[in-house]
Every structure is written in structure tokens, then in C-alpha cells.
Design brief:
single chain, 220 residues, seven-stranded parallel β-sheet, 46% strand
Length: 220
């Protein structure tokens, strides 16, 4: 199911590779040392997934790896860092996720701590970036773009629990006919939410409802 799987060792270098129709494009397992590190360097890789709900472009369980200059298509999650996938660098990654995979699709899914996402571009994943409660990662220059309204709510960033990460110089945008339920949000599940570049820039009743009910943000 994995096109390329790094099982252990360190300093693996993978570059100039194309992967097609894989459930897992690249799987980096936890290293055998006390850091769980594999120090892999993966650069200039194109991944086309299986276009199924269990398909992931990059599945990272290890630490201190670098993933750079990658295009990822036809997957449910562009990248997923598990609880052990700490202190990795994701730079210039571009997941393109078809809207047919639904509302649960995610560009970048981080369940770990201390990862760095630099100039990463979510293309049509229903939620661009998801982090868990204990995630303290850095997101610099990120971009989420939606060209289809099919998924309903389009979320830029979602924190599952308390928001502890850092977001810098990030934007969201769309290029489709706006539906009343298509908003681009930063939200903290179960807590306060903040609207980031809402499609509607006015305080209409629908806009007010989304802010107050969905984001738990009162409008004065």
C-alpha cells in the first residue's frame, strides 16, 4: 500500500520520483533512536494517490525529516504527521484534493508537535490545515484556495482543542460562485473562533449567524 516506505536508518535521500495510484505515497516510520528520528530528505517528488478516503500523500511517524518541493494529488490527506511525527519540515508542498472526497479532506494534518510548514499550499481540501490540542507548530506563508463550493464550509485552519500553534503571513481565497454557507475560517473546536478573510465582508444575517453560532464569536 506504500509506494515508498522508510523503515529505519537515517539520512535517506529521495528525489526526482513520481508515484501513482498509491494508498500511501511516502511512509516515514519512527526511527529506532531515542528521538524517533530518521533525518530523511525527500525532495522534488510528485505523488498521485488512489483517490480514496484512506489515501494519504505523506504519512510521517518519524522526526527530523524534510519534505520539500512536492505536488500531491487525489488523496484524502495531503500530509499527516502522527503523534510521534515531531520536528519535521514541510516546505513548498502542494496537495490538490478533489472535492469528490468530501468535507473531511485535509491539506495538512498535524497530530504532533514542533513541525514547520513553510509556503505550503492547500488546493481544494475542505480544511486547509488541522492541528491537535498539543500541536505547537509553525505555519509560515500558507495558502488555501477553493475553486469548487461543493464541500460547504471551507476552513482555513482548524484546531482540535486549544490553539497553540503560530500562523504567519497566511491567506485564503476562492474562485467560485459563493454559497451562503461557504466561509473561510480559523476556528478552535469547542472554543472561540476567528474569521480569517470571510467571503462576505458585511454583517448580513447569514454572516452574523455563522459568526455567533459556528464560530462562537459575538457580533456587536
Amino acid at each position: 500500500a506504500s509506494a515508498i516506505s522508510i523503515e529505519g536508518g537515517k539520512d535517506t535521500y529521495i528525489y526526482n520520483v513520481s508515484i501513482k495510484s498509491a494508498v500511501l505515497g511516502i511512509h516515514v516510520k519512527q526511527g529506532p533512536n531515542e528521538l524517533g528520528a530518521t533525518w530523511a530528505n525527500i525532495d522534488n517528488v510528485n505523488i498521485t494517490g488512489a483517490n480514496k478516503t484512506d489515501s494519504v500523500g505523506v504519512y510521517c511517524e518519524g522526526s527530523y525529516n524534510t519534505f520539500a518541493n512536492m505536488r500531491i494529488a487525489s488523496v484524502m490527506y495531503g500530509t499527516q504527521a502522527t503523534e510521534t511525527g515531531e520536528r519535521n519540515i514541510f516546505r513548498n508542498l502542494h496537495p490538490l484534493i478533489p472535492p469528490t472526497l468530501g468535507n473531511d479532506s485535509i491539506g495538512f494534518y498535524d497530530m504532533s508537535d514542533g513541525n514547520n510548514y513553510d509556503i505550503c499550499y492547500n488546493d481544494q481540501g475542505a480544511t486547509g490545515f488541522v492541528m491537535h490540542e498539543n500541536t505547537r507548530s509553525v505555519y509560515n506563508g500558507g495558502f488555501s484556495y477553493w475553486w469548487s463550493p461543493d464541500q460547504g464550509y471551507h476552513v482555513g485552519f482548524r484546531s482540535i482543542g486549544k490553539f497553540n500553534s503560530l500562523i504567519v503571513s497566511t491567506k485564503v481565497s476562492q474562485n467560485h460562485d459563493v454559497k451562503t454557507d461557504a466561509y473561510m475560517l480559523v476556528e478552535e473546536d469547542g472554543g472561540q473562533g476567528v474569521v480569517l478573510y470571510p467571503i462576505h465582508g458585511n454583517k448580513t444575517n447569514t454572516y452574523r449567524y455563522v459568526l455567533e453560532q459556528y464560530c462562537k464569536t459575538p457580533i456587536l
